[in-house]
Amino acid sequence: AAKPARLNSPEYGMQAFLWWRPEVASRDLQMIRAAGFTWVKQDFAWREVEGAAKGVFDWSRTDRIVEDCNREGIDLLVRLDRQPHWARRDGAENGPPDNYQDFADFCYAVASRYRGRIRAYSIWNEPNLAREWGGQKPNAAEYVRLLRVAYQAIKRADPNALVISAGLTPTGTWTEEATPDDMYFDQMYQAMGGRSEGYCDLIGLHAPGYKAPPEASPDEVAQNPAWGQQRFFCFRHVEDMRAIMLKYGDGDRQVAVLEFGWTSDPVNPSYSWHRVSEEEKADYLVRAYQYAKANWSPWIGLMSLIYMVNPDWTEANEEYWWAINYPSYPEFKPRPAYEALKAMPK
């Protein structure tokens, strides 16, 4: 039977890396389930599935991932992006295809193959950054056009699958390289005619915590030099984004937080200013879920944290420091965050 379109408030998810190493993937899914989490987020890079040529598909890894998640009883959220090189003449690392119908066809192929087995799809990632939009200046109206063709294709193939708009990166930068997420989000609503119906089932947002604890309001963070003095440098920046939804009368739409967390990074200068200890990370992640449950219900849906670690990361990877476990196999090496999240009442 299809699961309801309206999610519990909240539901609990983690991003994981299930693609390259089946044995680690299987172990990590079991550890996600053991922690009482019911969702996993995984990228399906378009070029890894339909990379050789249009209509030529390699389902070997996606079949295994879907099978593993179904077997463990974990809901799967798949992010679709990273075009094949045949789909975009300039060969950008991650950009919309020259012909949006190519992406719609890919979405239809995935959702048809896994009808009833993949619960949700998020369409693209951080399109308010040029580097995630083919190196071009971010363009909310063009993203909305891509979202709409993807939504229509997925719904045609699997009417019960949920479609989630892309998480936007919190930033105050307004240049050729980036658009502030609140400004871009407002532009998305303008392009959608003020309603997300017909474009997505849930609104996707990103909510990294930076230096501040999860309960800190955007007003407090904007006034505190130690916390970065910008409204978006906090978990509760979600509330600023939610206010835009309310402005357009779209308050019934649930939100999916597609990425959130805190980093313990002592290595990378652009991240180390907002590093927390592993113990603080554990505490803040639990408190973020608790805050959302107490203050954002009923509109908060899925909350997917970053990350179960990619087994190939080292301390040189900035992503390594956001993770809630250490790269290891076969033994599982949790950080304090994993243990705290496992112990947290759901």
Tag the structure with descriptive keywords.
alpha/beta, two-stranded antiparallel ribbon, globular, eight-stranded parallel β-sheet, 10 strands, 346 residues
Question: How is this structure best summarized?
Answer:
The chain is globular. The strands form 2 sheets. It has an 8-stranded parallel beta sheet. It has a two-stranded antiparallel ribbon with strand order 9-10. It contains 11 helices and 10 strands.
Q: What can be said about the biggest beta sheet?
A: 8 strands, parallel
Tell me, rounded to a whole number, the average pLDDT: 97
Shape: globular
Supply Rg: 19 Å
Outline the structure in words.
This protein is an alpha/beta fold and about 350 residues long. The two termini are about 25 Å apart. The protein is built from 11 helices and 10 strands. Helix 1 runs parallel beside helix 3. An 8-stranded parallel beta sheet has the order 5-4-3-2-1-8-7-6. A two-stranded antiparallel ribbon has the order 9-10.
Secondary structure elements and their pairing?
Blueprint: E1 11-15, H1 22-34, E2 39-45, H2 46-49, H3 60-72, E3 75-81, H4 100-113, E4 120-123, H5 140-157, E5 162-164, H6 181-191, E6 202-206, H7 218-223, H8 237-247, E7 254-259, H9 269-272, H10 278-295, E8 300-305, E9 325-326, E10 333-334, H11 336-343
Parallel strand pairs: 1-2, 1-8, 2-3, 3-4, 4-5, 6-7, 7-8
Antiparallel strand pairs: 9-10
